[in-house]
From TrEMBL:
Domain of life the protein comes from: Archaea
Protein name: Adenosylhomocysteinase
E.C. no: 3.13.2.1
Function description: May play a key role in the regulation of the intracellular concentration of adenosylhomocysteine.
Length: 417
């Protein structure tokens, strides 16, 4: 199957979107791409990628191709593809795409299967569906993969579960856990883009609202910080006592979801787990409560309970579904419970994805260079890659920093004063 996109005629418009993103992604689209173009470290390598097909992803894919790779790209979410970007990528040499906005479940997994059956050497995933399919349905192909990377917290959890169960068949780099990814993409990127998605979908005023944030990892921290910055009163729910304590020390109210459900105007899930907001919570929510998800999969807000409870359902705005309950209360679900920042908006700002995708490009190069030397387990991004991404980002921003003198290095490495 050749590339499959919604409308190839959208390619010119998509090219402009990619140009805009790349102007704000100098690490991936300038520094790394220039070196990759000269050195061709990925020459002849097949890279299978399952990512959100956005203008920022296009910058990464074009850099991989510039390094000599052949790339097949499928969507990591049925509703996140930017169709013009997919069309623009599909017409570039060395890149094939299977993605369009609004895929059904069968179409979604058929595109991932299209990537898998191509027998890629390196796999790049966002959420773990590609890794899971390789191991569950194509173990013989998985055994031939040189290595993989993973973009999200959810996907890294799945990879570590595979490693724990002794079934992981290739080395995998947890790109999500790089400091230049999680501290910036997860916190600042998701924090801003989630609020952006909610505002585009609803046009509500955040000031004065009670916003409930479920989960206080890097994503939850970013959302809570941005919501407070817009004047919202923020409640955090957590199951981890250390994170809950951190939220308290950061000045947020912390309580169980069943209590927060009675108070909240807007609910945002960011846990990576399922059934975080469910029937008992819906039963006590205010009339007009708004539900949004910032976690990878559409399981955090348990929509089956909402469907069972509703006596009427209608779409009142793009990406806003109203559920009317038996007592007349209305609950509004955004983006079908999927990633609100990518469904109702454009995802993370290009500037922050620059660092995340720089880690992806350099990790792919690392896996190629170390083919056959790594065991089938989950690895952190090598420190030298993480720090190189930070250095290049600072360089792009025109910022210089100090360096240690030899005397200072010796002092820090010795136990004798």
């Amino acid at each position: 199957m050749a590339s499959r996109v919604r409308d190839p005629a959208l390619a010119d418009r998509g090219a402009l979107q990619i140009e805009w993103a790349e102007m704000h992604m100098p690490v991936v689209a300038k520094f790394i791409r220039e070196r990759f173009t000269r050195e061709k470290p990925l020459q002849g390598v097949r890279i299978g990628a399952v990512l959100h097909v956005t203008k920022e992803t296009a910058a990464l894919v074009r850099t991989l191709a510039a390094g000599g790779a052949e790339v097949r790209l499928a969507a990591s979410n049925p509703l996140s593809t930017q169709d013009d970007v997919a069309a623009a990528l599909a017409r570039e040499e060395g890149i094939e795409v299977c993605a369009w906005r609004g895929m059904n479940e069968e179409e979604y997994f058929s595109c991932i299967r299209w990537v898998t059956e191509w027998r890629p050497n390196i796999v790049i995933d966002d959420g773990g569906d590609l890794h899971a399919m390789l191991h569950r349905e194509y173990p013989e192909i998985a055994a031939s993969v040189w290595g993989g990377t993973e973009e999200t917290t959810t996907g890294v959890i799945r990879l570590r579960a595979m490693e724990k169960d002794g079934v992981l068949k290739y080395p995998a780099i947890a790109v999500n856990d790089a400091r230049t990814k999680m501290m910036f993409d997860n916190r600042y990127g998701t924090g801003q883009s989630t609020i952006d998605g909610i505002l585009r979908a609803t046009n509500i005023l955040f000031a004065g609202k009670v916003v409930v944030v479920a989960g206080y990892g890097w994503v939850g921290r970013g959302i809570a910080l941005r919501a407070r910055g817009m004047g919202a009163r923020v409640i955090v729910t957590e199951v981890d006592p250390i994170r809950a304590l951190e939220a308290v020390m950061d000045g947020f109210d912390v309580m169980p979801m069943i209590e927060a459900a009675r108070r909240g105007d807007v609910f945002i899930t960011a846990t990576g787990d399922k059934k975080v907001i469910r029937r008992e919570h819906f039963e006590v929510m205010k009339d007009g409560a708004i539900l949004a998800n910032a976690g990878h999969f559409n399981v955090e807000i348990w929509v089956p309970d909402l469907e069972e409870m509703a006596v009427a359902k209608r779409q009142v705005r793009p990406y806003v579904t109203e559920y009317r309950l038996t007592d007349g209360r209305r609950i509004y679900l955004l983006a079908e419970g999927r990633l609100v920042n990518l469904v109702a908006a454009e995802g993370h700002p290009s500037e922050v994805m620059d660092m995340s995708f720089a880690n992806q490009a350099l990790s792919a190069e690392y896996l190629v260079k170390n083919r056959g030397k790594l065991e089938p387990r989950v690895y952190v991004v090598p420190r030298e890659i993480d720090e190189e991404v930070a250095r290049l980002k600072l360089k792009a921003m025109g910022i210089s920093i100090d360096t240690l003198t030899e005397e200072q290095k010796e002092y820090l490495s010795s136990w004798q004063l």
